[in-house]
Design brief:
alpha/beta, four-stranded mixed beta sheet, three-stranded mixed beta sheet, 26 helices, 9 strands, 52% helix, 7% strand
Length: 668
């Protein structure tokens, strides 16, 4: 799921000791030589950017990663204690501790070499025909290797209370279809570098240089055909473009050359009669590939994907080769993260709810839920007032919007029930096997949901995650404990700054329910048009203003943002700050004060801007401009304030200055 935005909240000063709280804005982060009306982001974050270079093992460093780094230190303490083998360990400590220990045992991993993967490589080499091919694709899917397409469970878009089978595009290595199809020099270079990387991976697995080079070309050609049939990211934002319910018999008619019944049987999916085919054109390409691609090309493609998926569990040479392309070249990261941090990520990925339970005990105080829910209630009240007073929306649609707002489920801290990992066997000296077993269990858990009522209490993110999200099919906002702490909220800090940091991000998540994508879902999480035609047309006009505005922003060189791809996040940013400002007005009740020389309104805008202070590698900026639905921090700040007359007034800006938009956009 997409990265949505951060949240807020006070945690007691337990293991996550922060810097001493400040009464107002982070004055030390500011560049007061800059003019806030010319470049507010530089004014709010200039000194922070100058004093916080990107660490060598990161491609981006910002306030989110600062908090993530603090969380990781707590989690490493938990894992190191849990990995100390002793008879008194409980079952949770045994699983997470032994998983971590197996990952940290580099000597054992290097000693085993490629032996753990050899049976899988041999299976691919033995493929002799279509029957073997389909069996191998299903086998790889069962073990968590994402080849060719994605098949799993999903709530039904038209009836979110039931979970259905879902068949979607997938199978690409590069970040998106554009990387295969664009003809600019950088895209051509990236494809060349990918080929070279794939060839080196295949050589590490035993191929000669000549054979590996030929196979790498076959992999790129195979994936290019898939890319041509894939739906682009902007089109996928409209749920109508990815909803095509059909019976299994209809799937066989549109894609007759792929033996779907054999695949469904081999992948161990519960019985079903109908499924959603997100991208029919892609599925037709899968069928064409099954009929026409040479078997040697299939083997090359499956082998590379297997190597890529398991690189982190193999000897150091595989890890380094994967990092050199995906981390260093594509993302701009100079060094691999330390081994203990990589192993922590692996435990969180595969056994997240076990690690999360211990994280809650260490870092999430008993009052945290209540404090967050109070803040959410205040922002919900502000958004309700905003909707009621919108000048462009008719009363009919307003009532439907308010009904959806009041139906949002607020999930705070951790899920109502933890995932069961009893099916996962963890051995202290078998990292490769642990990862395969954990991935396989997660895969089966997903498939077993098909045909059952949707569990709307389930979370997409693990508890220690520094993130938050809105889920349209569940109509819920979700705030993991990992982000519910400073710098996003501090009970000792000024209310205006808290509302700028906290209020804006809570309002952001709520506004996602009413952005270009979220507005197409109703209060129950079903796709339904609850807008009058007049209001829908007015929304689209206002949304187009934001899309056009952000499409003019350039994060690096001649690369522009895609305003249609980032429209949902930009709409939510703009709406979130407005909601926070309304909540501030409700809180102040006419009282004005100055802290650090700033008025409450100025402090709110500074509080918002300073959660987006960041430095980003050029390679990462380019990558995100193509693939990320979020704008870079600079434009999340400047793009919002230049749309707000309230900012113009707060900082006494003048018409014609850059932070005063000549054509200010507003949806919510």
């Amino acid at each position: 799921m997409s990265f949505r935005i951060a949240l807020l909240l006070l945690l007691p000063p337990l293991a996550l000791a922060a810097d001493p709280p400040k009464p107002g804005v982070d004055v030390g982060a500011m560049d007061k030589s800059a003019n806030p009306c010319v470049d507010f982001y530089q004014y709010a974050c200039g000194n922070w950017k100058a004093n916080n270079p990107i660490p060598a093992d990161r491609s981006r460093w910002g306030r989110f990663t600062e908090l993530s780094d603090r969380n990781e230190k707590v989690l490493l303490g938990i894992l190191k204690n849990a990995s100390a083998a002793n008879a008194s360990r409980g079952p949770i400590d045994q699983k997470i501790g032994d998983y971590y220990a197996s990952c940290m045992n580099e000597a054992a991993i290097d000693r085993k070499g490629i032996e753990p993967l050899q049976p899988e490589l041999d299976r691919i080499r033995r493929i002799a025909g279509k029957q073997d091919l389909v069996a191998e694709i299903a086998h790889l899917h069962r073990s968590g290797v994402p080849v060719l397409f994605n098949f799993g469970s999903s709530p039904d878009n038209k009836d979110s209370n039931r979970t259905i089978a879902d068949l979607d595009q997938g199978g690409l290595s590069l970040p998106g279809r554009e990387y295969y199809l664009n003809s600019d020099a950088k895209s051509v270079e990236t494809r060349q570098r990918f080929e070279q990387h794939a060839a080196r991976m295949l050589q590490l697995a035993g191929d000669s240089p000549e054979t590996a080079t030929s196979k790498a070309r076959a992999v790129l050609d195979f994936e290019t055909a898939l890319a041509k049939a894939s739906l682009d990211r902007v089109a996928r934002r409209d749920p109508a473009n990815t909803y095509h319910m059909m019976r299994k018999e209809e799937l066989l008619l549109i894609a007759p050359d792929f033996p779907w019944d054999a695949y469904f049987s081999a992948v161990s999916v519960p019985q079903f009669d109908s499924l959603n085919v997100d991208t029919p054109d892609f599925v037709r390409q899968v069928s064409t590939s099954a009929a026409s691609n040479p078997m040697d090309q299939w083997k090359a493609y499956l082998t590379y994907h297997l190597l890529r998926a398991r690189a982190d569990e193999l000897p150091e040479a595989f890890e380094k080769e994967a990092f050199d392309f995906w981390g260093r070249y594509l993302a701009g990261t100079k060094e691999m993260r330390p081994r203990d941090r990589r192993c922590l990520v692996a435990v969180d990925r595969e056994l997240g709810d076990l690690l999360g339970q211990e994280y809650i005990e260490a870092a999430f105080g008993p009052d945290a839920k209540a404090q967050t829910n109070q803040m959410v209630a205040a922002l919900e009240k502000a958004l309700e007032e905003d909707i009621r007073t919108l000048p462009w929306m008719t009363e009919t649609t307003k009532q439907a919007a308010l009904g959806k707002l009041h139906a949002i489920t607020n999930n705070v801290g951790y899920p109502k029930k933890w995932r069961d990992y009893s099916a996962v066997t963890v051995a202290r000296n078998d990292y490769f096997g642990n990862a395969a077993r954990a991935s396989g269990a997660a895969r089966q858990r997903d498939l077993d949901k098909i045909g059952k009522p949707t569990d709307k209490s389930e979370w997409e993110m693990t508890t220690p995650t520094v993130n938050a999200y809105y889920e349209p099919q569940l109509n819920s906002i979700n705030f993991p404990a990992g982000i519910l702490q400073p710098p996003f909220f501090d009970a000792k800090r000024d209310t205006a700054v808290n509302l700028g940091a906290i209020g804006a991000v809570i309002g952001h998540e709520m506004t996602h329910g009413f952005d270009d994508q979220g507005r197409k879902y109703d209060a129950q999480g079903d796709v339904r048009d609850w807008w009058t035609p007049t209001d829908a047309a007015e929304f689209e006009k206002r949304a187009a203003c934001i899309a056009n505005e952000y499409s003019a922003f350039s994060p690096i060189g001649d690369v522009k943002l895609n305003g249609r791809l980032t429209l949902g996040e930009n709409t939510a940013d703009n709406g979130g700050v407005r909601v926070a400002l309304r909540a501030l007005d409700d809180t102040l009740k006419g009282k004005k004060d100055k802290i650090d020389g700033f008025t409450p309104e100025q402090r709110l805008f500074l509080g918002y801007a300073q959660i987006w202070c960041e430095n980003t590698a050029p390679e990462q900026l380019r990558l995100r401009a193509i693939t990320d639905p979020h704008s870079p921090g600079r434009f999340r700040v400047n793009g919002v304030v230049q749309n707000m007359p309230e900012f113009e007034k707060a900082f006494a800006c003048k018409v014609g200055q850059p932070m005063v938009g000549a054509n200010a956009c507003r949806v919510w």
